[in-house]
Amino acid sequence: MSGADVESEAVVRVIVVDDHEVLADALTQVLDAEPDIEVLGAAHDLAAARALLASTEVDVVLLDHRLPDLRGWPRSPSCTSCSRPPRSSS
Fold it and tell me: Alpha-carbon distance 74 to 18, whole Å?
């Protein structure tokens, strides 16, 4: 493996999902400042989160557990059909 391959594997790809835009934007800025974290986007509702998951290879989803309409979503087809479905930490 080349040095570039090792470096790209060390980066954690993240999306932030929170309906409070100020909080999501602040968290995105803090995470983006870390050299080993790449924030691929922020979503403020479930529709935008689903679109991000469908269009990106994500390692970590930071998800507001009080997001409106969230019940059952982590087990929905839009999540479990991803190439690498997210795992719940709860």
Answer: 15
**Two tokens, residue 8:** 């790209």
In a domain, 85, yes or no: no
Quote the domain boundaries for residue 46. 3-66
- What are the strands of the beta sheet with 37-43, ordered from one edge? 37-43, 12-17, 60-63
From the list 46, 68, 47, 50, the residue with the least C-alpha distance to 58 is 50
Residue 6 has pLDDT above 50, yes or no: no
Taking the C-alpha atoms of residue 35 and residue 45, their distance in angstroms, rounded to an integer, is: 27
**pTM score, whole prediction:** 0.71
pLDDT, tens digit (0-9, with 9 covering 90-100), for 35-90: 999 999 999 988 898 899 889 888 888 888 777 776 655 555 555 555 555 555 55
CATH for 32: 3.40.50.2300
Residue 84 φ/ψ, nearest 5 degrees: -130, 85
